[in-house]
Write a structure and sequence with these properties.
Family: Belongs to the AccD/PCCB family.
Radius of gyration: 26 Å
Pathway: Metabolic intermediate metabolism; propanoyl-CoA degradation; succinyl-CoA from propanoyl-CoA: step 1/3
Catalytic activity: butanoyl-CoA + hydrogencarbonate + ATP = (2S)-ethylmalonyl-CoA + ADP + phosphate + H(+); propanoyl-CoA + hydrogencarbonate + ATP = (S)-methylmalonyl-CoA + ADP + phosphate + H(+)
Helix content: 25-40%
Largest sheet: 8 strands, mixed
Shape: elongated
Protein name: Propionyl-CoA carboxylase beta chain, mitochondrial
EC number: 6.4.1.3
Distance between the termini: 43 Å
Length: 532
Amino acid sequence: MAALRFLPRLLPVSRTRLVRSHSASASGSVPERIAEKRRAALLGGGQARIDSQHKRGKLTARERILLLLDPDSFVEYDMFVEHRCADFGMESDQNKYPGDSVVTGQGRINGRLAYVFSQDFTVFGGSLSGAHAQKICKIMDQAVMVGAPVIGLNDSGGARIQEGVESLAGYADIFLRNVLCSGVVPQISLIMGPCAGGAVYSPALTDFTFMVKDTSYLFITGPDVVKSVTNEDVTQEQLGGAKTHTAVSGVAHRAFENDVDALLNLREFFNYLPLSNRDPAPVRKCHDPSNRLVPELDTVVPMESTKAYDMVDIVHSIVDEREFFEIMPSYARNMIVGFARMNGRTVGILGNQPKVASGCLDINSSVKGARFVRFCDAFNIPLITFVDVPGFLPGTAQEYGGIIRHGAKLLFAFAEATVPKITIITRKAYGGAYDVMSSKHLRGDVNYAWPTAEVAVMGAKGAVQIIFRGKETDAEAEYVNKFANPFPAAVRGFVDDIIEPSTTRVRICRDLEVLASKMQSNPWKKHANIPL
C-alpha cells in the first residue's frame, strides 16, 4: 500500500464529492447532463471497485495518468464514448459507462508531448470492446500524424466476451497500428495488471514492455488452461509474472516495485527518447565535463586474460553523471544494453559482459542486442559498443537452437545501422564475434582499441594447439606477441587508434560532436529480410 501514498495530491476531486455528485439527479438541462456524464466517467466502475483496486496495491487508470504526466497537462479524448453491445443484457443503461473501460488522451512528460491510453480495470475488468479499441486507435493515428510517442498502461482481463468478434476485430485494428507505428514513433507498454490471450500481442509489438512486480501478468493462456492441456500445475506468477518475463522469456524489458515506482521510472526513461523518427536524439544541459579523464580505467582490465571484470562499471564511469538506464538487466546478462548520455546527448550503449559466460555471444544475447540496435537506428540514437568477446558460445544446445541464424540478427542490425557508431575494444575480440560487434567492416565510424585489446582469430592457447597439432612448443608467447594484441588491427586501419583507457570519455564526446552531422543511407528497398 506504500504505492498509494501519493493519492491525496493526485486526485483532482475528492472521492466523497464524486460519489455525492454521481448520486444526484441528472435530469434537467443539457449542461447538467454533460456535467453528470463527466462525473460518472471520473468514477469509472464506481467507488467499491476503486476501493478494491486500491486494496490490491494498484492505482486506478486516471490516477496512473495523473502521476505519469506533468500536472494539468492531460487532455482527455472520447470521455463520452460507450460500448455498443446489444447482447447478454449489456445494452442496459446500467451496464454502460461513459468512456467505457479505457481512458485516452495526450499530455506532457517533462514538457514533451506523449499520447497515452490507460485501461480501467474497474469497468468490466478493463476488457476490450469495439469502443475501447476505437479510442486507442484514434490516439495512435494522431500520434503518428504529429510525431509523438504512444504509451499504453495495460490492465485488462482481455477481450469482452459479450461482444464476440467485434472485440477480436478491435485487437486486430490495434495490432495493425502497432506495426504501422513501428519505427515511426516510440511505443511503450507498461503492464500494470493482467494481460492475457490476444491482448499480449500489442505489448509484444511495441518497442519496450515494462512490468510491475507481483501485480502484472502476461500469458497466452492462463494456469487453468495450461493444467487442462498439459497437466502442469503453475501459478499466475510462475507462468507470466514479472520475474518470468524479465529473467527467463525476455518478453519484458524491466520490472518495477509498484505502480508509483513504475510510472516515475517511465518518466525518467521517456527523457532518453526522441519524439519520432524525424527528431534527433535528445540533448540536455550537461554538468559533467566532456573532457573529464577517467584514470581508474587504466587499470580496470585484469592482466590475466581469463579474469573477469564488470563492463557496467566501465559504462558508469564514462557516461554523464554515471547515469545508465539498463534495458533487460536480468535477461541474457552476458550482453548489456541501455541508454545513457554523453555530453548531454542520448546514446545507446551495448557491451559484452565478461562476468557472465565470459562475455560470449549466444542466442539470447544476440537477439537482445539486435533488437536494441535496430531501435536506436530507427530513432537516430548513436551507438557506443564496448567489446570483450571471446566468440560465440559453443555446444549442441546453441547449434540446435539456431545460433547461426540468431547470431546473424546482431550482425545484420549493426551492418544495417546508419546512425553514428563508435566501438571500443577493451580486451578480447576473437573470430566472427569480432566482426559482429560493430567492427569497422560493418561501417563502424570510429573504432578504438585499448592497449589490453586482443584482436585475433582465436585465443593463443587454442591457436597454438591447432597450428602445432599438440606438439610441445613455446609458441604461445610468440603468438600473443604477433597476433593477440591491438597492433595487427591498427596497422591495417581496422581500428582508428590505440588509446589510453582514461581518455575514452574525452574521445567519445569529441567524436559524437563530429558525427552529429553524419549522413548515410542504405540502398532503396521495400524492406530488408532480417534472418528472423
